[in-house]
């Protein structure tokens, strides 16, 4: 599902964030991405989401070679990827419902379908009763759940998360990880960058460890 073959990423300032990286994630797999600060974790996720492009090498996602993908196809490609961030990136002047609806509005869904899918996503993350709230009225863990609902509302086959529990206490972090597991159990490929060694050492998933832009031994 996710295939990196000798991938290099050099930023315009000449910093090489990824150096000859090769790895493979199976369809339906759940895995963690770890490594020191600056190791290249966010860069790797950005290459999968086509927020950045590789300098050399092949990134192949669901049999599509991203290096060959023209710009006009990128928005359509991105519907396949759900993205969850540490700071949730919610719009604070919009309700929970509106935040989760955003990807569906962008992809031009009709009103009824939006209502149905948003409520289904909020139900999955346990926030159905809070759809009219503003994000500010929610706890940190609930805000992260809104971010997850927004990421899955398009039913993407791949879910990427960049430090999704970075701001949460251990109990809430565990709950968020359980949510990711539930999506994985219904077939979603889940890839989570995390520093939280305590949490991920208790979970039975593969770890891909980066060190200075390469796979650590
Ligand atoms: N847009 C950019 N321009 C130049 N250098 C960048 C850019 N983005 C990241 N870098 C550099 O690339 C390296 C890898 O960054 P990246 O954010 O991928 O690391 P990370 O493993 O996610 O780190 P952290 O755990 O601190 O978030 C770092 O040295 C960083 O400074």
TrEMBL record:
GO terms for molecular function: ATP binding; ATP hydrolysis activity; transmembrane transporter activity. One of its GO terms (cellular component) is plasma membrane. It is found in: Cell inner membrane; Cell membrane. Coiled coil: none annotated. Its main location: membrane. InterPro entries: AAA+_ATPase, ABC_transporter-like_ATP-bd, ABC_transporter-like_CS, ABC_transpr_LolD-like, Cell_div_FtsE, P-loop_NTPase. It is a peripheral membrane protein. GO terms for biological process: cell division. Residues 2-217 form the ABC transporter domain. Keywords: ATP-binding, Cell cycle, Cell division, Cell membrane, Membrane, Nucleotide-binding. Homodimer. Forms a membrane-associated complex with FtsX. Part of the ABC transporter FtsEX involved in cellular division. Important for assembly or stability of the septal ring. Belongs to the ABC transporter superfamily. This is Cell division ATP-binding protein FtsE.
């Amino acid at each position: 599902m996710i295939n990196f073959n000798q991938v290099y990423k050099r930023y315009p300032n000449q910093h090489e964030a990824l150096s000859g990286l090769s790895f493979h994630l199976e369809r339906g797999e759940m895995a963690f991405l770890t490594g020191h600060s600056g190791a290249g974790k966010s860069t790797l996720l950005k290459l999968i989401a086509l927020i950045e492009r590789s300098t050399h090498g092949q990134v192949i996602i669901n049999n599509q070679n991203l290096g060959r993908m023209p710009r006009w196809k990128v928005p359509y490609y991105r519907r396949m990827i759900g993205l969850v961030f540490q700071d949730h990136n919610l719009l604070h002047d919009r309700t929970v419902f509106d935040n989760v609806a955003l990807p569906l509005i962008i992809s031009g869904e009709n009103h009824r379908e939006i209502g149905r899918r948003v409520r289904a996503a909020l139900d999955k993350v346990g926030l159905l009763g809070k759809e009219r709230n503003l994000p500010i009225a929610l706890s940190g863990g609930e805000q992260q759940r809104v971010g997850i609902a927004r990421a899955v509302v398009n039913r993407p086959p791949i879910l990427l998360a960049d430090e999704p529990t970075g701001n949460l206490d251990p109990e809430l972090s565990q709950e968020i990880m359980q949510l990711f597991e539930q999506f994985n159990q219904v077939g979603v490929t889940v890839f989570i960058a995390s520093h939280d060694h305590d949490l991920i050492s208790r979970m039975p998933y593969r770890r891909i460890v980066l060190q200075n832009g390469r796979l650590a031994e």
